[in-house]
Specification:
By secondary structure, this protein is mainly alpha-helical. Helices cover about 80% and strands about 0% of the residues. Helix 8 packs antiparallel against helix 9 and helix 9 packs antiparallel against helix 10. The longest helix has about 140 residues. It is rod-shaped and about 195 Å long. The N and C termini lie far apart (about 115 Å).
């Protein structure tokens, strides 16, 4: 994200995103806005959008990149709230969201920050383990600047363990790699660690050698603090006039002369220098100034802690309110969902009943048509039977009439000829129809 401040302003201008967006889109919106605000350097102690994103991606891990970011930024915000256990847990969850192979850049960032968190909790052995893992990831990507950072983290962890030989080994290894690859960034902290280690071991000549080498690599805006360090070395080696000159130079070089920590260091170096020169009055005056500045620093730290507590209380209040609103929203969504299901079930039931009634009506219609057809068939059969009976009776009548006419003719012939003629033979078909007609009448 190249311009996080502009992105944050644009996203904050979206009207009522929690109402207009779906739960998935609102979670994505919350995640992007959290990322933009964090990269813009805002104080996010009382932030609740990160919780919105985390609540969603805690159960929707199909998008591993979004889930990783949700846990990662939640961990950074928890660290800003001074909740180290929560921050470590969230950062470990962030690492679990990443695939075991690939995404080496994300793995490196997570392991580096895990080491930082462990170092702040004085878990230096754990910091070494995370720094070694981060170094392996950086080596696989051939990112030599990241390798220098990991070596510096190892050196810092060994310094916390008071293992100055190992600290010096890894610090010098990081500086040699930076010199070999032409890396100029993040080298001054390694020289500073070497100087501090030499001072703790009272190797002042070596400390001054490290200072001479590291001062040339220090950014311009930090060189005033390096002059304060050189003044401390001079006080320890008895060069009090040089220490006073370096302290004045550091004061003139500092752009922000109201910085309490810098002013306290100047006062302490001045007090030590005047004490070494035997001027107890000036030393006491500078020491009083140092004590006043230290009290101011402690008061400022205490005020910051109180402000942090207030913001945490405000965050917990907002978190409770958001949880209640989210519960109400989910309850409303559940009611809407259940209403839709009930309406759909009623519609299906009505459709089923309608189809059932239509089916029964059709069955009754078909049964009625069948009865009508059966009655028509019966009537047709009766008409056919009547027609056959009528035809048979007509045939029989015709046959009787034909027999009577034949007998009358024969009688006429006998009368004319005086002899009796034999009757005309009755055809076989006529006899059969007569018999059939007789049987039908019976």
């Amino acid at each position: 994200m190249e311009h996080p401040d502009s992105a944050a302003r644009l996203l904050e201008g979206v009207p009522a995103p929690e109402k207009r967006l779906s739960r998935r889109n609102y979670a994505h919106y919350a995640l992007v806005l959290t990322q933009a605000r964090w990269l813009a350097g805002e104080n996010m102690i009382d932030d609740t959008l990160s919780d919105v994103a985390l609540d969603y991606y805690r159960t929707h891990t199909d998008d591993f990149a979004a889930a990783h970011k949700a846990y990662y930024y939640a961990a950074k915000i928890a660290h800003q709230r001074r909740q180290p256990e929560v921050a470590m847990t969230l950062l470990l969850k962030s690492r679990d969201m990443l695939p075991p192979k690939g995404e080496w850049r994300r793995h490196y960032v997570v392991e580096t920050w895990l080491g930082v968190f462990c170092g702040q909790q004085h878990l230096f052995e754990e910091k070494i383990r995370h720094a070694q893992q981060a170094y392996a990831y950086a080596d696989s990507m051939e990112r030599y600047d990241w390798m220098c950072i990991s070596l510096g983290d190892m050196a810092h962890a060994y310094m916390g363990l008071d293992n100055y030989d190992s600290m010096e080994y890894y610090a010098i290894k990081a500086l040699r790699l930076a010199e070999e690859k032409g890396i100029t960034e993040n080298t001054s902290p390694k020289w500073a660690m070497l100087i501090e280690s030499a001072l703790k071991r009272k190797e002042y000549r070596k400390a001054e050698e490290y200072w001479e080498k590291g001062f040339g690599h220090a950014p311009a805006w930090t060189r005033y603090s390096w002059l304060s360090t050189k003044a401390d070395i001079c006080n320890r080696t008895g060069r009090y006039d040089t220490a006073l000159e370096l302290t004045d130079s550091s004061r003139r070089m500092c752009a922000d002369t109201t910085h309490l920590t810098s002013r306290a260091l100047w006062a302490l170096n001045t007090s030590n220098a005047w004490e070494g020169k035997g001027d107890a009055a000036r030393s006491l005056e500078a020491l009083k100034q140092y004590i006043r500045l230290k009290d101011s620093i402690d008061e400022k730290v205490h005020s910051a802690e109180v402000l942090n507590i207030r913001k945490l209380w405000r965050y917990e209040q907002l978190k409770t309110q958001n949880a209640a609103l989210q519960s109400q929203k989910q309850h409303r969504e559940r009611i809407v969902y259940e209403t839709i299901l009930i309406c759909a079930a009623l519609m299906l039931l009505g459709a089923w009943l309608g189809l059932r009634m239509w089916h029964r009506a059709k069955l009754r219609e078909f049964a009625q048509q069948k009865r009508i057809l059966r009655h028509e068939n019966e009537l047709d059969a009766r008409r056919n039977t009547c027609a056959r009976l009528f035809s048979a009776s007509s045939t029989a009548v015709s046959s009787r009439r034909s027999g009577r006419a034949g007998r009358a003719g024969n009688a006429a012939c006998r009368t004319k000829t005086g002899r009796r003629s034999s009757p005309m033979p009755t055809p076989y078909s006529t006899i059969s129809r007569s018999v059939s007609a007789g049987n039908s009448r019976r």
